[in-house]
Structures are given as C-alpha cells and as structure tokens.
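Sample entry (449 residues):
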Amino acid sequence: MSTKTPLHVLVIGAGFGGLTLAHGLRKAGVSVAVYEKQRSRTDGLYGYRVGIDPTGNRALKDCLPPKLFETFLATCARTPLYFNVLTEKKRRTAAVPLRGDADLINSERSVSRQTLRQVLLTGLEDVTHFDKELTHYEQRADGTVVAYFADGSSATGDVLVAADGAHSAVRKQYLPHAKLKPAGITTIGAKVPMSPEALRLLPVTSQKGLSLVFAPKGFMCIWHVMEFRWDERGGIKDSAAGNDAELLRAWPGMLFDNTRDYISWGIWASDDKFPKDVLKLRGQALIDLVLKLTPNWHPDFRKLFAMADPTTPFPLHIATSEPVPAWQTTNVTLLGDAIHTMTPGQGVGANTSLRDAMLLTRALTSVHNGSRDLLGAIGEYEAEMIPYGFARVKDSLAENGTNGNDPLHKPVLGRAVLAGSRAYFKAVDKIPSVQRKFLDDLYTYRGAE
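Predicted structure, serialized as tokens:
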C-alpha cells in the first residue's frame, strides 16, 4: 500500500498558471501557498482580452472546483461567432463562421484578463500573499527550499514553482542561461468603451466576432468585441441565463472587477516603424501615434482608434524565449512564461501556461498520494512540458507578421506577402473545402478533440 507524502508547494507568481496550479493542488489536498509581488489583487494591467481555447478549457475544468469552473464560464464574454479578415480600407477578405460554445471543452472563449484573474483568486484568498517580491531562493540539504522576499520575510516548502512570468526572478537564478530575445515587433493596444456609435464603426460580422486587419508596410491590427453578462453598473443583464445570473450574483470577485463591455484594438508592426521612445509614451500620446501611423486607413477604423479610453493604451516590445535543453531535475520547477515566453502569433501563451498547471498538478498529486517520488514526478512533467512549450514558442514566432524578420515587414517583398495572405483568406472565405481545412487545423492546433 502506498503511503501519502505530505507536500507544501510554494508558487511564485499569481498569474493564470500559478493560480490554476494552486487550485488544482488544493482540490487534491496538497498544501500550497502563492506569493505575488504586486500589492493587491487589483494591481497590474489585466484589463484586456485573452482567448481560452480547448486546451485552456480542459485545464481549468480539471483544476478548478466545479462551481468555480461554472463561474468562469459565466464571466466569459459573448462567444465570437466569426473570424474576420479585413483590409485597412475596411474591405472584407474573409468572414468565417466559428463553432459555438455548446461544447464546454472543444470551443473558443473570450475573457477579460482582469476578470479571469479575479475568478482564479476566488477561494485562494487565504493562501495568496501579496506584496511579496522574490529576491532569491535557497535549496537546503534537508530537501526543503526557502523563498526570500524583499520585505525580509521568507517561506519554506518542499517544492518551489516559478510562475512569475517572462521576467521570472526564479528563472534568472535557476536557469541563468535561459534568455529572452526581442521578436522585433512593437505593439500598441487600447480599449474603446462599448457604445452603439462605436459598434457601428465595425462591419456586421466584426460586431459578432474577432477581426484581423492586414495592411501595407507590415502593419496588422486586431479587434475584439467584448460583451459580458453584466452592465455598466455591475448589475446582471436581463439577457443573462438563470444559472449564470445566480453564479454571478454569488461571485465575490465581482467586487474587485471593473471590467465592462468594450472593443479592444491592438496594432503592431516591426520595431523600425515606431519611434525609438515609444515605450515612454502614455495615454493620448499613444492614440495620436497610432493615428499618425494609419493616415490612409478607413475613417471608421481611425475613429475607433481615436475613441479609445486615454487611460488604457499601452506599448510593448514583443519578446520570445530562446529554447534551452533539458536541465537536471530538482525540487524547483517552472511553468508558463517563466520558461516559454512566446509571441502572440498563435494566441496560445495563456493556454500553454494552463496546460502546464494541469500537468504539474497531476505530477505533484501523484507524489502526495504516494504513487511517485518527487524528483521522478517533476522530471516527467518537465520531459513533457519542455518539448511542447518550446514547440509553441517556435510556432508563434513563425506566424505571419509576429516576427520582425518576417518577409511581410520588408519594403518590396512585403507587398507580395500581403497579396498572398489576402488571396489565401479569400479562398478560405469562398471555397468550402479550404474553409473546412482552415477550421479543422485551427481547432486541432488549439487542443480540440
């Protein structure tokens, strides 16, 4: 008969992966504590959209308590009905109907980052510690690991998990040779408060889906229409179904979530298209820059850029992880962006982090239950995570337009690539067999079974 092995797990970072891992471990009876450098649960830039694919749905369902998974579903925005491709002149290239959300797992969902964070913090309030910036850790001879924080405090556990993002303090100490490199892409994102006027500026199918714009000079833009089950005052909309309404009324996270209906936009191109000091710009200056970069775009798109809430724009240089070979397993391990930061080209970064959390939950639960030794279980997790994680990094960097060296961004060759991309999506739009293959490939890659 196997003997249970009590574990205490230290999770550094309260992002999606770290919190999902904490839920999975608590669900399995494993002791866990989460340490987050931000000062409170409402700090940070979390207000933008993240797409949860079948891989992410599966991980959340596996790790969260059943009622909290139902709450997650209730907090998602209206499911996108179309994948649209447009020109900068607002001409349709493709409008592909997406699969619905009747299948809890094999579907695509849109959720606000702030909202998902509040969902994942629900039920972990007693084990999540804020204002805890890791300075270093120490692995001791007795098999424990001690985390030290900037405020002078420390915490001791049997396992330490780096879930502290792309600039992970844990990774810098544990795998100092694991580096990030610039992808050569700059992006600016912002939110437009929802209004009938703003919505009418988008094509009809874009009002009910997500839209990708291919433009000259390597510029690309994405629009997301995010409509939730609550109104601008935080009250439950009449259109919310009975069970969803009950879940939302009972959800304490609503007190911390200021997300309301919005249209988000993000525009990107190679770094050389932007001023060198773009990361220093804030607010209206970023909106003005986007308008300066898009003088020949359709007036409706330019109106939407101009209608952005000036408190929301943010600039970002995109980075990506350089693959590292497998390392010797210890009682320190990593998940998500802490080990495999990727460009947003495939939209799978958050979902890959959730997959990591699910697999690591299973590994550590097997140790807790006495069926595996600790290093063997962590080693198996890493042997599976490293190949698929860095495969996603490679795929994302190769995606059209999300690598500064992509031909799309070249002065002459870029025009041919742009024409080819538009021709392909016109075929997706018009030819049923091409459209079926596009959708099958999309959903299969994103974890549908």
